[in-house]
Amino acid sequence: VASMKKPHGHISYIVVTGCLSQRYPDEIRKSLPEVDAVVGTGHYHQISEIIQSLFSMNKNRDWNAYVSRPGSLSHMRIDRMVSTRPYAWLKIAEGCSNGCAFCAIPMIRGKYISRPMEEIIEEAKSLAKQGFHEIILAAQDTTSYGKDLYRKHMLSTLLSQLGAIEGIHGIRIMYAYIDGVNDELIHEIKTNPKVLHYLDIPVQHGDDEILKKMHRRDTVESITNTLQKLRDEIPDIVIRSTVMVGFPGEKKSNFDNLIKNIKLWKFNCLGCFIYSPEENTLGFSMKPRVRSDVAQRRYDKVMTLQQDISLNANQELLGKIVNVTIDSVSDDGIFYLGRTYRDAPEIDSTVYVAATREPLSVGDEVLVKIVDCSPYDLTGVTE
Questions:
Q1: What is the pLDDT at residue 8?
Q2: Coil, helix or strand for 188?
Q3: For 105-143, how does the pLDDT look when each residue is reduced to its tens digit (9 = 90+)?
Q4: Are 146 and 100 in contact, with CB atoms under 8 Å apart?
Q5: For residues 315, 321, 326 and 332, what is the CA-based torsion angle, rounded to 10 degrees?
Q6: Which of 95, 129, 304, 325 could bridge 110 with an S-S bond, Cβ 3.0-4.6 Å?
Q7: pTM given for the model
């Protein structure tokens, strides 16, 4: 990266931002002297003035760090400019108080803080006026929304108010916790016509012993019961999840239970991570560690299994006509790239759309007949 800077390259300055810079600003300064500024997670709203200040300083300027204690909502702007189309991410809370043994988020972003509902609604109205039809709700734990601010779960109430906003066609919920998926929330997803029948619930594992070591509140029974209730109440709901392999102490029997339950739960989409020890987390000092080659084999087995599950789910769509939102055009210019309600942008399946009649535009919602599929993507033609 340093070679890309002037005078040998074309870049004037290098700015590092995100969770890594929030947690290790001094280490970045020592190991990457070519970096001109480090921006922590509470200073995203200052990015323009930070860049302007770099260009206004002389060449002998000091190294700059914009990092403060986590635990603030000040960086969330209602009037922000969004670069995606036709969807927009809307953060409803910052930080996390769950204390999972593998996660450093509470140290990086602070304890869980819900944004005031009025502020979220105002931002959603602004996004709708700008033409963003799909709103994607995000937080480290969306289902905990309101517990700190209103002393009760308020996600269903928030969904109801968002659904009343003119111009919003779909509301997608990401990063839910099983114990927050209560009857009230299920009813709101089922009855609110603007809430997409899609839910991201990272369960992390499928074995009670490992879930307990991870300091997760869920059990295999609670996960199984909640998933069954969701599917009974909302038969067309799409559920994506995430699991982790190689957590300290994960034995073959624990992993076998994970595999068994992935087969039982049949998530439409599933991501898998290999455990990585994070300093100052509970898991960092846990023993015994799982060998890296063993963890890799377990990862491969999970993903191979999920490929079969996802392929079977996609094959059920062959020959069917589905509603697709156009997001972009493929690099080769042959296909339009879109998504159904079943797909969150950038992480789930893509629908490759061949337009048989008039050209399409980003943001169009079109009916598409699915003619081919893989475990990850679909191909269709416009009706």
A1: 82
A2: helix
A3: 999 999 999 999 999 999 999 999 999 999 999 999 999
A4: no
A5: 60
A6: 95
A7: 0.90
